[in-house]
Amino acid sequence: MSTELIADALEQAAQTLTGKGPIQMVNFLRYFQDAHYPASNELPPCSGREAYYLRYIPEFAKVASKVAPGSFSITFVGNVQAALVAPAAERWDDIAIIEYLSIEAFRDIVESAHYLSNADPHRRAALEDWRLIATTKASLPS
Question: Which of 60, 71, 91, 97 has the fewest CB atoms lying closer than 10 Å?
């Protein structure tokens, strides 16, 4: 299980993608059945999916609008219905593709104090497992 954005991986991605324009972040999301907040949390209980969509995403949008206005858009969100080519034990609930104007904008958002204190706790509470893959649009051969 992996739910942490690793600083070294982010730095390596930044070195590869800096100056390359828009990036698409592909998110593979598996939620906890019940959100896993610390005992000190005062929010009402909810599912992991609710924590992600009703708490994390709105907080993320607030952070992004302050830190890097207009820097991201939700390109696609889909509920996984069937895995046709995947290990039998691999299971994802949703897939989301988010486009950012640049890797720099993404970093500005996820490394900001506002993100770390207001949005990230909801992501951590919501996700049992996560993959985040940075992509750029490919130039396909003719």
Answer: 91
Structural domain for 89, as ranges: 7-135
Q: Is the pTM of this model over 0.85?
A: yes
| CATH code assigned at 52 | 3.30.70.100
Task: Retrieve residue 112's tokens.
Answer: 């900001």
* Cα 140 to Cα 142: distance, rounded to the nearest angstrom: 6
Give me the DSSP letters along the chain: ------HHHHHHHHHHHTTS--EEEEEEEEE-SB----TT--SPP-BHHHIIIIIIHHHHHHHHHHHSTT-EEEEEEEE----SSS-TT---SEEEEEEES-HHHHHHHHTSHHIIIIIHHHHHHHEEEEEEEEE-------
| Token duo for residue 25 | 């972040």
Q: What is the pLDDT of residue 50?
A: 98
* Number of structural domains found in the chain: 1
